[in-house]
Automatic annotation (TrEMBL):
Keywords: Aminotransferase, Transferase. Transmembrane segments: none annotated. GO terms for molecular function: transaminase activity. This is D-AMINOACID AMINOTRANSFERASE-LIKE PLP-DEPENDENT ENZYMES SUPERFAMILY PROTEIN. SUPFAM superfamilies: D-aminoacid aminotransferase-like PLP-dependent enzymes. Coiled coil: none annotated. It holds the Pfam family Aminotran_4. The lineage of its organism: Eukaryota, Viridiplantae, Streptophyta, Embryophyta, Tracheophyta. InterPro entries: Aminotrans_IV (IPR001544), Aminotransferase-like (IPR036038), BCAT-like_C (IPR043132), BCAT-like_N (IPR043131).
Length: 322
């Protein structure tokens, strides 16, 4: 499959010749989105129910607090009778999930049939955007003003555990606004941070004070560190005698509730591993034993393999090397 892939938009399936790269498409269209990949020789979508739930949550957050990230050219001509649905509105969730699944079923079979090689997995991005023209026409049902676009492209899995395949990260800027929602405008906004990327760095980390690390531009960040002598409370009550704990910044500090992030938390709880939601502090990095980042393309590979493959450069205050 070509890097451009396939696109389903406004009821039409666009083939590779007419499909932009996913980054270009997201930069050009506002909205909430999620990206996953196929699994098991494209037999299913990885953790799809969780992705749909987060996508629905992101739409609700944007509708309530920042509709300009959902609707292009939002202005005062919008129907004044239209009010965002309450956050717990089950009809909104079911409508979004139905629209997204219907759209995926229009384009994914085409991509599988036309270009996929045996064993190749595909990256699938669903974008829910507000249609400003429709918004001016609808009465109170805001669901009628939502459009769904689906982009399908090649997925190249990362291989970890081999020298040179770990991550090299750098702290470059402050955290995101509305971090609890995943929205396409961030693809454009983070370009200013990309200009600060040091050579060979694979991910950029965010921190509001230069010490406590929140997350990466496209990942969640974790450390495994030695416990200190404080009596800390751990998720799930895992206050055992293990000499280490896993840390990651809490959602309330301004981080994306990543799908793999939640799976890591659940894995730690099920295995009795002490887990604390606190932003890892660089000033305490002497206690760090290991670190890892997680995101959709990495899946559990980051958790099981990268965990042992990242080391820290003690001579640098902001760059972490393999």
């Amino acid at each position: 499959m070509t890097s451009a892939g396939f696109l389903y938009s406004k009821g039409i399936v666009f083939y590779p010749a007419d499909t932009p790269p996913i980054s270009t498409f997201l930069e050009s269209n506002p909205g909430a989105y999620t990206t996953t990949r196929t699994h098991n020789n494209s037999a299913s979508l990885l953790f799809w129910d969780r992705h749909l739930q987060r996508l629905s949550n992101s739409v609700k957050i944007l509708l309530t607090s920042n509709p300009q990230f959902l609707f292009k050219s939002l202005n005062s001509t919008i129907n004044p009778l239209l009010t965002p649905p309450p956050p717990s509105n089950p009809m909104l969730e079911s409508t979004i999930k139905s629209l997204v699944n219907e759209s995926i079923n229009k384009v994914l079979p085409v991509a599988l049939r036309e270009t996929r090689n045996e064993g190749e997995e595909l990256a699938v991005t669903a974008l829910v955007t507000g249609n400003t023209e429709k918004l001016g026409e609808v009465k109170r049902n805001i669901f009628e003003a939502l459009d769904v676009h689906v982009h399908v492209g090649s997925h190249v899995p990362h291989v970890f555990g081999v020298k040179g395949n770990g991550a090299r990260v750098a702290v470059v800027g402050p955290g995101r606004n509305i971090a609890e929602a995943k929205y396409s405008d961030w693809v454009r906004l983070r370009k200013s941070l990309e200009k600060l990327r040091p050579p060979f760095v694979t991910e950029l980390l965010l921190s509001n004070d230069g010490d406590r690390i929140l997350e990466g531009c496209v990942t969640n960040f974790f450390v495994v560190c030695r416990k200190d002598n404080r009596n800390e409370k751990y998720l799930g009550g895992n206050e055992n005698t293990l000499p280490y704990e896993v840390q990651t910044a809490p959602i309330g500090d301004g981080v994306l509730p990543g799908v793999i992030r939640q799976l890591v938390i659940e894995a730690c709880l099920s295995k009795g591993i002490p887990f604390r939601e606190v932003a890892p502090s660089w000033s305490e990095h002497e206690f760090w034993q290991e670190a890892f980042i997680t995101s959709k393309p990495f899946g559990f590979y980051t958790f099981s393999l990268l965990l042992a493959s990242i080391a820290f450069d003690q001579n640098s205050s902001n760059v972490i090397n393999t």
